[in-house]
Design brief:
Blueprint: H1 2-14, H2 16-19, H3 22-39, H4 45-60, E1 69-70, E2 76-77, H5 81-90, H6 93-105, H7 109-113, H8 117-123, H9 126-137, H10 142-149, H11 156-166, H12 171-183, H13 185-196, H14 199-202, H15 214-231, H16 236-251, H17 255-262, H18 264-278, H19 283-286, H20 289-319, H21 338-350, H22 357-382
């Protein structure tokens, strides 16, 4: 009888019910809420589903993120499954490979055809620096403030890359906030865009972009890599992989590498990155005042980034004699291609015959480069 009781007691102690806490239960509900948004509302499901499921797993079974250790007998006890996935985040491997895939899928033609788009992409990075100073005022260290501020660029991989270098303890909250705001681009941006522009401005039709030659397309990733990496060497993993992926695409001689980079490899990396990032959000780490501050600062950064892009678009509209629609400035955040689609949508609401998508893609891809450059600046200063 005692044997049976002991067996049942051991079984109970080894079950998840024995060790679960109220905070774990709260995080399980948060994870389920994110899964609902991803599946039902289609908010960035490719990344939100693995992140939310990683969050669910670590709060049901914390040992899935356990680090390896030597026991009293000197034997090595292996770590949890997602710990090994997370190593790719720590060393910046998964974010860099995501950039490789993004580069292979991205057409830089609109940016090459209209180089002034670089200015709009740069203007939208204002939100990053606003959030940085806000985080400093709230008591975060320089490295943590820099990592939090990148949320304003709406660039999940860059946020993860920088946080892994400067504030790994905040990686989970920063990543969840970054991808949450990326998924909410269609909800957050339109009211800001409409508030800062007139109906007449929203109806502005832009001239068709000039054709871009194959030589220009091939030279662009090479020249950008040389210039940016010489100025900011710390951007090499992100900018280098982004431009390598684009060179695969534009060279036209490595179709297999382009297809693998933009499809199979990228989606495998998304699974590894998403689940491991989600698994950093254990209840003890996530349910803190710092997390609420990060979420709030991320929203401030994103709002300021959108607003600064639109305002600079209005300035360029005036200087060009009304030839530039200010709405494309909002696409300067890095959510590719969602932010460009939002510019198109808001413009089409004012005039259904207005087609801004390709014009908005210029600032959009410039924003990707701009956010990577901002991360490189922070790494150079605080790394």
């Amino acid at each position: 009888m005692n044997y049976l009781i002991d067996t049942l007691a051991n079984l109970l102690e080894s079950s998840g019910f024995y060790n679960i806490t109220v905070k774990n239960i709260i995080m399980i509900f948060v994870a389920c809420g994110l899964l609902y948004l991803a599946i039902k509302k289609d908010y960035e499901p490719l990344l939100l589903i693995p992140i939310a499921f990683g969050m669910l797993l670590v709060n049901l079974f914390p040992q899935i993120m356990a680090t390896p250790f030597y026991n009293s007998n000197g034997d090595l006890v292996p770590g949890g499954l997602l710990h090994y996935f997370y190593i790719g985040d720590e060393y910046g491997i998964w974010p860099s490979l995501i950039f490789l895939g993004v580069g292979a899928m991205t057409d830089f033609g609109p940016l090459i055809a209209n180089p002034s788009s670089f200015l709009l992409g740069a203007a939208a990075q204002f939100g990053i620096y606003t959030a940085y100073f806000g985080a400093i005022l709230l008591g975060f260290t320089d490295g943590a403030a820099a990592s939090i501020s990148i949320i304003g660029g709406a660039d999940g991989p860059t946020s993860i890359f920088l946080a892994s270098k400067l504030s790994p303890e905040l990686l989970g909250p920063i990543a969840v906030a970054a991808y949450s705001y990326m998924s909410l681009v269609p909800i957050i941006q339109p009211p800001i865009m409409k508030l800062l522009t007139t109906e007449k401005e929203r109806k502005i039709k832009m001239e068709q972009l000039r054709p871009v030659s194959k030589l220009e397309r091939i030279l662009f990733p090479i020249i950008v890599t040389i210039v940016v990496v010489l100025i900011l060497p710390d951007t090499a993993p992100l900018v280098g992989m982004l431009m390598l992926g684009n060179l695969f695409r534009e060279s036209g001689v490595v179709r297999q590498l382009t297809e693998v980079s933009s499809n199979a490899l990228m989606y495998i990396v998304v699974i590894l990155l998403g689940t491991s990032v989600g698994a950093t959000t254990s209840a003890e780490v996530f349910l803190t005042w710092n997390t609420l501050k990060i979420v709030g600062l991320g929203l401030v950064a994103f709002v300021f980034g959108t607003a600064s892009g639109v305002i600079f678009g209005k300035i360029m509209c005036k200087l060009s004699g009304g030839k530039i629609n200010p709405l494309i400035g909002s696409a300067g955040v890095s959510a590719v291609p969602m932010a460009a689609r939002v510019s198109q949508k808001v413009g089409a609401e004012a005039d259904p015959t207005n087609f801004l998508l390709m014009h908005a893609m210029g600032p959009n891809v410039a924003g990707v480069i701009g956010t990577a450059v901002a991360a490189g600046v922070f790494l150079a200063v605080f790394g």
